[in-house]
Amino acid sequence: MAFIDTIKARAKADKKKIVLPESMDRRTFEAAAQVLAEDIADIIIIGTEEEVAANSEGLDISKATIINPFTYEKTEEYLNLFVELRKKKGLTYEEAKKTALGDYMYYACLMVKAGDADGVVSGACHSTANTLRPSLQIVKTKPGCKLVSAFFLMVVPDCEYGSNGTFVFADSGLEQNPDPGKLAAIAASSAESFELLTGEKALVAMLSHSTKGSAKHADVDKVVEATRICKEQYPDVTVDGELQLDAAIVPSVAASKAPDSPVAGKANVLCFPDLDAGNIGYKLVQRLAKAEAYGPVTQGIAKPINDLSRGCSAEDIVGVVAITAVQAQAQ
Question: In the chain, what are the domains?
Fold first, then answer.
């Protein structure tokens, strides 16, 4: 069974309510129709009757729950919740109303915060910043988590490396240039996410252009320090670095460059030193190896709120909905 089919089966076994707030985009409805047909999750779509009619023509979304925020009976409750959550920032009722009704992502997050939904998938029309800002203002960070980061779940066809071609690439969507402490936290969160989604042990490689001192540079020092911090603060995580990509995933290279490493040659979680490397890396693998790329999936938010690439397909949205549902099950 393909990896994403396994995730869909897990989602289907304990269905969760997932909100799709981007009713202004046809892909939302194409994805919703497929999710409902496959019975992967219960879908809530936020939008007016006009928005829904304009973008869902010809698609069967009869099993979806359509919520018009301008007329829904719980809107007042959500707006009051928004004011309460942001009162220290001086948010007024009128500002809350303008924000939540003007940007459905805020409304979706309020539904999750109120316990009326289990997760949100957005980003086909929203930038990452405009997806995460409402999440952090309303849903907040996960207790004990030091930062919110993002990863791509990569499934590479006909690949002998990683976990049968399955990897987590992090951070590939959010944290621009993490310091060693943040990089260590990203590694730990990514290990947890990999194990949740695959059921297999995470082996985390802290990537660099150097392997075990083969190059000297401040960028290398950052990765070395991040590895040290990760081992110290997250002792249950199997992590090693600094490792070049080939040393991290190719056994023959690992035997030569890092023979004593518990990770080299078999890494399935690749922790990149910065967002440039992570973003370029996942897109190279996606385009050149024709890999499936699901994400950016966020980690560190109190409830699963997941982003999409604005170039996503409806099929991509379906995959992220399934992943979001599995994350919600774990809570």
Answer: 3-140+317-329 (3.40.50.10950), 149-288 (3.40.50.10750)
